[in-house]
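Attaching the record inline, Q. Sequence:
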Amino acid sequence: MSDKPSFPLALAYLIDALNSWFGKACAWLTVFLVIGTAVVVVLRYGFGIGATALQEAVLYAHALVFMGAAAWVLQRNGHVRVDIFYQKFSGRRQALVEIFGNLLFLLPVALFLGWASWDYVSNAWSTLEASSESGGLKFVYLQKSIILVLVISLVLQGVSNLIKALYVITGRLPAPEVKHG
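Structure, as predicted:
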């Protein structure tokens, strides 16, 4: 038997790798958030100089940190979860909870968010919406697009989680160990 994973499992691992890479890249933006915010504060209160473009860039980065890294956090099981029972479940039962959670909650909510924000984002793109502030950035349409990045990455991670959970249930993949505390 080959050590090469089947197509669905290879797809899940590819999604995991992409979301991991993108999430880590977004996480590095926190360095810019700290430095950018400090510079804005020093310029404004130390020198009386406004830095609208930098302030807006910090807002864009903030959106990317939280929405861009959300799927990576989900992949790493880092989201808040009420697991008073889950932590005591066997690996197969946890996989079953994962399947139902993805099918009943994650995917419907993510798809609804994509549907509900589509007009908002597409209208911004149709006009190449720019900041209304003097000296602001001309890329508001890109900032609004981060919502769709969130949706796409969460849907893909949900698909990956479903595939892996199905493999656990069928015994073709060992159940991951749950870390307590």
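The helical segments are 7-27, 29-47, 52-68, 70-75, 91-126, 140-169. The chain is about 70% helix and 0% strand.

More tomorrow.
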